[in-house]
């Protein structure tokens, strides 16, 4: 059965762009958490429960082809492909969301285990885990982590500014970035401060 799945995956990726555009483009084309299952369609206006077996397989194969699909998603997608049409529908309607939440939970635990995670990151990751919903975990990974890390990075920049022994050039660079974007703060801490001193 696995060999057949590989052949199907190759066939699904080799199909003409017109056919591919008529099916869900990726896991992101599936229902967002909390939205009705009919949001994912093979063609405009076709709900999951009306999709053909081929459309269901292609939608699942596209999820498998997504490099961001985690272990739980891959496991559940493969089980759905090994099962019945009903199993494939169930995966697209609810199984994908739950499997992704399992993968997201693992990702949040990895962030917590990282010794470089600051207080704000730990606080927000813990809140996401305590909420224990797929939506809370996904929100933390998509936006909450970035914002919490920026909070920690801003504190780190203030600590640099509090050091009376820093050079005037480093002080000016830190003052310029302290109100910046999360990306600017991260760049300054990882690279920028060393470029100024170098």
Automatic annotation (TrEMBL):
It comes from the Bacteria. Residues 1-27 form the signal peptide. Keywords: Signal. This is Uncharacterized protein. It comes from Actinacidiphila glaucinigra.
């Amino acid at each position: 059965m696995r060999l057949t799945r590989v052949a199907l995956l190759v066939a699904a990726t080799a199909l003409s762009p017109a056919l591919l555009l008529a099916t869900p483009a990726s896991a992101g084309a599936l229902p967002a958490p909390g939205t009705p299952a009919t949001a994912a369609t093979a063609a405009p206006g076709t709900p999951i429960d009306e999709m053909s077996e081929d459309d269901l397989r292609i939608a699942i194969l596209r999820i498998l082809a997504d490099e961001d699909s985690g272990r739980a998603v891959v496991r559940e997608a493969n089980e759905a492909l090994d099962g019945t049409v009903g199993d494939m529908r169930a995966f697209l309607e609810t199984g994908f969301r739950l499997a992704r939440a399992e993968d997201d939970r693992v990702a949040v635990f990895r962030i917590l285990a990282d010794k470089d995670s600051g207080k704000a990151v730990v606080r927000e990751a813990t809140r996401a885990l305590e909420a224990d919903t797929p939506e809370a975990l996904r929100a933390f990974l998509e936006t909450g982590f970035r914002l919490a890390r920026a909070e920690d990075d801003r504190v780190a920049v203030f600590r640099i500014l509090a050091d009376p022994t820093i050079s005037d050039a480093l002080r000016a660079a830190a003052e310029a970035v302290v109100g910046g974007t999360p990306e600017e703060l991260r760049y300054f801490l990882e690279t920028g401060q060393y470029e100024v001193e170098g």
